[in-house]
UniProtKB/TrEMBL annotation:
Lineage of the species this protein comes from: Bacteria, Bacillati, Bacillota, Clostridia, Eubacteriales
Superkingdom in the source lineage: Bacteria
Keywords: Cell membrane, Membrane, Transmembrane, Transmembrane helix, Transport
Record's protein name: Peptide ABC transporter permease
PANTHER family found in the cross-reference section: DIPEPTIDE TRANSPORT SYSTEM PERMEASE PROTEIN DPPB-RELATED (PTHR43163)
SUPFAM superfamilies: MetI-like
Membrane topology (UniProt): Multi-pass membrane protein
Length: 311
Protein backbone atom coordinates (compact mmCIF):
# COMPACT_ATOMS: atom_id res chain seq x y z
CA UNK A 1 0.00 0.00 0.00
CA UNK A 2 2.83 2.43 0.89
CA UNK A 3 4.52 1.72 -2.43
CA UNK A 4 1.27 2.35 -4.27
CA UNK A 5 0.76 5.70 -2.48
CA UNK A 6 4.30 6.83 -3.35
CA UNK A 7 3.73 5.83 -6.97
CA UNK A 8 0.50 7.84 -7.12
CA UNK A 9 2.21 10.88 -5.61
CA UNK A 10 4.98 10.68 -8.20
CA UNK A 11 2.43 10.43 -11.01
CA UNK A 12 0.97 13.73 -9.82
CA UNK A 13 4.10 15.57 -10.97
CA UNK A 14 3.65 15.24 -14.78
CA UNK A 15 -0.09 15.83 -14.38
CA UNK A 16 0.49 19.09 -12.54
CA UNK A 17 3.16 20.16 -15.05
CA UNK A 18 0.79 19.71 -17.98
CA UNK A 19 -2.03 21.43 -16.07
CA UNK A 20 0.16 24.39 -15.14
CA UNK A 21 1.37 24.74 -18.73
CA UNK A 22 -2.19 24.82 -20.10
CA UNK A 23 -3.35 27.33 -17.49
CA UNK A 24 -0.30 29.55 -18.02
CA UNK A 25 -0.83 29.43 -21.78
CA UNK A 26 -4.55 30.22 -21.49
CA UNK A 27 -3.91 33.22 -19.25
CA UNK A 28 -1.19 34.42 -21.63
CA UNK A 29 -3.67 34.28 -24.52
CA UNK A 30 -6.23 36.19 -22.46
CA UNK A 31 -3.96 39.22 -22.56
CA UNK A 32 -4.01 42.10 -20.12
CA UNK A 33 -1.03 44.20 -19.11
CA UNK A 34 -0.15 43.74 -15.41
CA UNK A 35 1.99 46.87 -15.50
CA UNK A 36 -1.11 49.01 -16.04
CA UNK A 37 -2.79 47.26 -13.11
CA UNK A 38 0.14 47.78 -10.75
CA UNK A 39 1.29 51.32 -11.60
CA UNK A 40 -0.90 54.40 -11.23
CA UNK A 41 -2.50 55.96 -14.31
CA UNK A 42 -0.01 58.84 -14.37
CA UNK A 43 3.03 56.54 -14.61
CA UNK A 44 5.43 57.40 -17.41
CA UNK A 45 6.28 55.11 -20.31
CA UNK A 46 9.80 54.71 -18.90
CA UNK A 47 8.41 53.55 -15.55
CA UNK A 48 6.11 51.07 -17.28
CA UNK A 49 8.94 49.63 -19.39
CA UNK A 50 11.23 49.39 -16.38
CA UNK A 51 8.62 47.46 -14.38
CA UNK A 52 7.82 45.25 -17.37
CA UNK A 53 11.51 44.40 -17.73
CA UNK A 54 11.96 43.74 -13.99
CA UNK A 55 8.96 41.38 -14.01
CA UNK A 56 10.35 39.52 -17.01
CA UNK A 57 7.25 40.17 -19.11
CA UNK A 58 9.35 40.80 -22.21
CA UNK A 59 10.87 37.31 -22.03
CA UNK A 60 9.64 34.48 -24.30
CA UNK A 61 6.69 32.42 -23.15
CA UNK A 62 8.64 29.27 -22.21
CA UNK A 63 11.20 31.30 -20.26
CA UNK A 64 8.43 32.88 -18.20
CA UNK A 65 6.74 29.50 -17.72
CA UNK A 66 9.83 27.68 -16.48
CA UNK A 67 10.66 30.59 -14.20
CA UNK A 68 7.16 30.26 -12.75
CA UNK A 69 7.56 26.49 -12.27
CA UNK A 70 10.91 27.11 -10.60
CA UNK A 71 9.19 29.49 -8.20
CA UNK A 72 6.57 26.86 -7.35
CA UNK A 73 9.31 24.31 -6.59
CA UNK A 74 10.87 26.76 -4.12
CA UNK A 75 7.49 27.48 -2.55
CA UNK A 76 6.80 30.78 -4.32
CA UNK A 77 3.47 30.77 -6.17
CA UNK A 78 3.71 34.43 -7.04
CA UNK A 79 2.13 37.67 -5.87
CA UNK A 80 -1.25 39.03 -6.85
CA UNK A 81 -1.03 41.85 -9.38
CA UNK A 82 -4.04 43.58 -7.84
CA UNK A 83 -3.67 43.19 -4.07
CA UNK A 84 0.07 42.58 -3.82
CA UNK A 85 -0.58 39.64 -1.48
CA UNK A 86 1.06 36.23 -1.69
CA UNK A 87 -1.08 33.88 -3.81
CA UNK A 88 -0.55 30.85 -1.56
CA UNK A 89 -1.47 32.78 1.59
CA UNK A 90 -4.57 34.20 -0.12
CA UNK A 91 -5.63 30.72 -1.26
CA UNK A 92 -5.12 29.20 2.19
CA UNK A 93 -7.08 32.07 3.72
CA UNK A 94 -10.09 31.20 1.53
CA UNK A 95 -9.73 27.42 1.88
CA UNK A 96 -11.50 27.07 5.29
CA UNK A 97 -14.65 28.69 3.87
CA UNK A 98 -14.70 26.29 0.91
CA UNK A 99 -14.02 23.33 3.21
CA UNK A 100 -16.91 24.41 5.42
CA UNK A 101 -19.27 24.78 2.48
CA UNK A 102 -18.15 21.56 0.77
CA UNK A 103 -18.15 19.49 3.96
CA UNK A 104 -21.60 20.71 5.00
CA UNK A 105 -22.99 20.09 1.51
CA UNK A 106 -21.52 16.57 1.49
CA UNK A 107 -22.95 15.69 4.92
CA UNK A 108 -26.32 17.10 3.83
CA UNK A 109 -26.19 15.03 0.63
CA UNK A 110 -25.23 11.79 2.41
CA UNK A 111 -27.98 12.16 5.01
CA UNK A 112 -30.51 12.36 2.18
CA UNK A 113 -29.08 10.14 -0.54
CA UNK A 114 -27.99 6.99 1.29
CA UNK A 115 -31.30 6.34 3.14
CA UNK A 116 -33.28 7.35 0.03
CA UNK A 117 -31.17 5.18 -2.26
CA UNK A 118 -31.58 2.15 0.00
CA UNK A 119 -35.32 2.80 0.36
CA UNK A 120 -35.91 3.06 -3.38
CA UNK A 121 -33.85 -0.07 -4.04
CA UNK A 122 -35.84 -2.26 -1.66
CA UNK A 123 -39.08 -0.87 -3.18
CA UNK A 124 -37.97 -1.26 -6.78
CA UNK A 125 -40.62 -0.59 -9.46
CA UNK A 126 -43.09 0.83 -6.94
CA UNK A 127 -44.43 4.38 -6.74
CA UNK A 128 -41.95 5.00 -3.92
CA UNK A 129 -39.09 4.09 -6.24
CA UNK A 130 -40.53 6.33 -8.95
CA UNK A 131 -40.85 9.27 -6.54
CA UNK A 132 -37.24 8.86 -5.44
CA UNK A 133 -36.00 8.77 -9.02
CA UNK A 134 -38.06 11.87 -9.87
CA UNK A 135 -36.25 13.67 -7.04
CA UNK A 136 -32.90 12.44 -8.36
CA UNK A 137 -33.77 13.57 -11.89
CA UNK A 138 -34.84 16.99 -10.60
CA UNK A 139 -31.65 17.42 -8.61
CA UNK A 140 -29.40 16.46 -11.51
CA UNK A 141 -31.28 18.63 -14.02
CA UNK A 142 -31.49 21.87 -12.01
CA UNK A 143 -28.45 24.17 -12.46
CA UNK A 144 -26.89 25.31 -9.18
CA UNK A 145 -27.19 29.00 -10.01
CA UNK A 146 -30.93 28.67 -10.78
CA UNK A 147 -31.57 26.70 -7.61
CA UNK A 148 -29.61 29.24 -5.58
CA UNK A 149 -31.60 32.14 -7.04
CA UNK A 150 -34.87 30.35 -6.26
CA UNK A 151 -33.75 29.84 -2.66
CA UNK A 152 -32.90 33.54 -2.36
CA UNK A 153 -36.26 34.60 -3.81
CA UNK A 154 -38.22 32.29 -1.52
CA UNK A 155 -36.36 32.13 1.80
CA UNK A 156 -34.68 35.54 1.77
CA UNK A 157 -36.74 38.03 -0.20
CA UNK A 158 -40.26 36.58 0.25
CA UNK A 159 -40.18 34.86 3.65
CA UNK A 160 -37.22 36.71 5.16
CA UNK A 161 -36.02 33.61 7.01
CA UNK A 162 -32.42 33.55 5.79
CA UNK A 163 -29.85 36.13 4.63
CA UNK A 164 -29.31 36.32 0.88
CA UNK A 165 -25.53 36.09 1.03
CA UNK A 166 -22.29 36.81 2.86
CA UNK A 167 -20.85 35.06 5.90
CA UNK A 168 -21.62 35.02 9.59
CA UNK A 169 -23.57 32.48 11.62
CA UNK A 170 -24.96 29.15 10.53
CA UNK A 171 -27.91 30.88 8.86
CA UNK A 172 -25.54 32.15 6.16
CA UNK A 173 -24.44 28.57 5.39
CA UNK A 174 -27.83 26.89 5.00
CA UNK A 175 -28.79 28.05 1.49
CA UNK A 176 -25.33 27.68 -0.15
CA UNK A 177 -24.89 24.20 1.36
CA UNK A 178 -28.39 23.16 0.31
CA UNK A 179 -27.81 24.46 -3.22
CA UNK A 180 -24.64 22.41 -3.65
CA UNK A 181 -25.89 19.48 -1.58
CA UNK A 182 -29.15 18.86 -3.45
CA UNK A 183 -27.50 18.20 -6.79
CA UNK A 184 -24.91 16.06 -5.04
CA UNK A 185 -27.64 14.16 -3.18
CA UNK A 186 -29.39 13.40 -6.47
CA UNK A 187 -26.25 11.83 -7.94
CA UNK A 188 -25.49 9.82 -4.79
CA UNK A 189 -29.10 8.61 -4.56
CA UNK A 190 -28.83 7.04 -8.00
CA UNK A 191 -25.44 5.52 -7.14
CA UNK A 192 -26.73 4.08 -3.84
CA UNK A 193 -29.84 2.65 -5.49
CA UNK A 194 -27.82 1.01 -8.25
CA UNK A 195 -25.29 -0.44 -5.80
CA UNK A 196 -28.03 -1.81 -3.53
CA UNK A 197 -29.87 -3.41 -6.45
CA UNK A 198 -26.66 -5.22 -7.44
CA UNK A 199 -26.11 -6.44 -3.88
CA UNK A 200 -29.72 -7.52 -3.30
CA UNK A 201 -29.42 -10.00 -6.20
CA UNK A 202 -26.37 -11.73 -4.68
CA UNK A 203 -26.58 -15.26 -3.27
CA UNK A 204 -25.33 -14.30 0.20
CA UNK A 205 -28.37 -12.04 0.63
CA UNK A 206 -30.68 -15.00 -0.06
CA UNK A 207 -28.63 -17.15 2.31
CA UNK A 208 -28.88 -14.57 5.09
CA UNK A 209 -32.66 -14.45 4.69
CA UNK A 210 -32.85 -18.26 4.72
CA UNK A 211 -30.89 -18.39 7.99
CA UNK A 212 -33.55 -16.26 9.63
CA UNK A 213 -31.77 -12.93 9.79
CA UNK A 214 -34.06 -9.97 10.32
CA UNK A 215 -35.00 -7.77 7.38
CA UNK A 216 -33.08 -4.79 8.73
CA UNK A 217 -29.99 -6.89 9.39
CA UNK A 218 -30.05 -8.32 5.88
CA UNK A 219 -30.47 -4.89 4.30
CA UNK A 220 -28.07 -2.84 6.40
CA UNK A 221 -25.46 -5.28 7.71
CA UNK A 222 -25.16 -7.51 4.66
CA UNK A 223 -26.52 -5.30 1.89
CA UNK A 224 -25.49 -1.72 2.60
CA UNK A 225 -22.10 -2.74 3.95
CA UNK A 226 -21.18 -4.37 0.63
CA UNK A 227 -22.83 -1.63 -1.39
CA UNK A 228 -20.70 1.04 0.33
CA UNK A 229 -17.70 0.32 -1.91
CA UNK A 230 -19.04 2.10 -5.04
CA UNK A 231 -20.80 4.64 -2.80
CA UNK A 232 -17.52 5.62 -1.11
CA UNK A 233 -15.89 5.98 -4.51
CA UNK A 234 -18.72 8.22 -5.72
CA UNK A 235 -18.57 10.33 -2.54
CA UNK A 236 -14.83 10.86 -2.99
CA UNK A 237 -15.22 11.86 -6.63
CA UNK A 238 -18.08 14.23 -5.86
CA UNK A 239 -16.28 15.76 -2.88
CA UNK A 240 -13.35 16.74 -5.08
CA UNK A 241 -15.88 18.30 -7.46
CA UNK A 242 -17.62 20.16 -4.63
CA UNK A 243 -14.32 21.49 -3.31
CA UNK A 244 -13.30 22.96 -6.64
CA UNK A 245 -16.54 23.25 -8.57
CA UNK A 246 -18.84 25.27 -6.29
CA UNK A 247 -17.97 28.45 -8.17
CA UNK A 248 -21.57 29.29 -9.05
CA UNK A 249 -22.89 28.80 -5.52
CA UNK A 250 -20.10 30.93 -4.04
CA UNK A 251 -20.78 33.65 -6.60
CA UNK A 252 -24.57 33.65 -6.15
CA UNK A 253 -24.35 33.78 -2.34
CA UNK A 254 -21.24 36.01 -2.14
CA UNK A 255 -19.49 33.23 -0.22
CA UNK A 256 -15.77 34.12 0.13
CA UNK A 257 -14.34 30.76 -0.91
CA UNK A 258 -11.87 29.54 -3.49
CA UNK A 259 -14.38 29.56 -6.34
CA UNK A 260 -15.20 33.21 -5.86
CA UNK A 261 -11.49 34.02 -5.49
CA UNK A 262 -10.80 32.52 -8.93
CA UNK A 263 -13.79 34.26 -10.56
CA UNK A 264 -12.76 37.65 -9.15
CA UNK A 265 -9.17 37.08 -10.25
CA UNK A 266 -10.28 36.20 -13.80
CA UNK A 267 -12.41 39.34 -14.01
CA UNK A 268 -9.44 41.44 -12.88
CA UNK A 269 -6.97 39.61 -15.17
CA UNK A 270 -4.92 38.69 -12.11
CA UNK A 271 -2.87 35.94 -13.76
CA UNK A 272 -0.76 34.85 -10.74
CA UNK A 273 -3.84 34.36 -8.57
CA UNK A 274 -5.75 32.46 -11.27
CA UNK A 275 -2.84 30.20 -12.18
CA UNK A 276 -1.75 29.50 -8.62
CA UNK A 277 -5.28 28.88 -7.35
CA UNK A 278 -6.15 26.42 -10.12
CA UNK A 279 -2.89 24.52 -9.64
CA UNK A 280 -3.56 24.26 -5.90
CA UNK A 281 -7.09 23.05 -6.70
CA UNK A 282 -5.62 20.34 -8.91
CA UNK A 283 -3.33 19.25 -6.07
CA UNK A 284 -6.34 19.08 -3.75
CA UNK A 285 -8.31 16.99 -6.24
CA UNK A 286 -5.42 14.57 -6.69
CA UNK A 287 -4.99 14.16 -2.92
CA UNK A 288 -8.74 13.67 -2.41
CA UNK A 289 -8.82 11.00 -5.13
CA UNK A 290 -5.84 9.28 -3.52
CA UNK A 291 -7.56 9.34 -0.12
CA UNK A 292 -10.67 7.89 -1.77
CA UNK A 293 -8.64 5.00 -3.18
CA UNK A 294 -7.18 4.31 0.26
CA UNK A 295 -10.62 4.28 1.91
CA UNK A 296 -11.86 2.10 -0.96
CA UNK A 297 -9.09 -0.38 -0.21
CA UNK A 298 -10.02 -0.61 3.46
CA UNK A 299 -13.68 -1.12 2.56
CA UNK A 300 -12.77 -4.02 0.25
CA UNK A 301 -9.83 -6.21 1.39
CA UNK A 302 -9.55 -7.63 -2.15
CA UNK A 303 -8.62 -4.18 -3.47
CA UNK A 304 -6.14 -3.70 -0.63
CA UNK A 305 -4.46 -6.97 -1.60
CA UNK A 306 -4.22 -5.83 -5.22
CA UNK A 307 -2.59 -2.54 -4.16
CA UNK A 308 -0.16 -4.41 -1.92
CA UNK A 309 0.89 -6.65 -4.82
CA UNK A 310 1.51 -3.75 -7.23
CA UNK A 311 5.15 -3.03 -8.00
Amino acid sequence: MIRYIIKRLLLMIPTLLVTSLLIFWAMDLAGGDPVQQILPENATVEQQEALRESMGLNDPFLTRYFRYVGGIITGDMGTSWKSGLDVFDTFMGRLPKTLLLGGTALIFACLISIPLGVYTAIHQNSWKDTAGMVFALFGVSMPNFWLGLMFILLFSLKLGWLPSGGTGGIEYLIMPAATVGLSLAALLTRTTRSAMLDVIRQDYMTTAKAKGASRNRVIYQHGLRNAMIPIVTAIGMQFSFVMTGSVLAETVFAWPGIGRLIVDAINKRDTPTVTGSIILCCVMMALINLATDIVYAFCDPRIKAQYSNKR
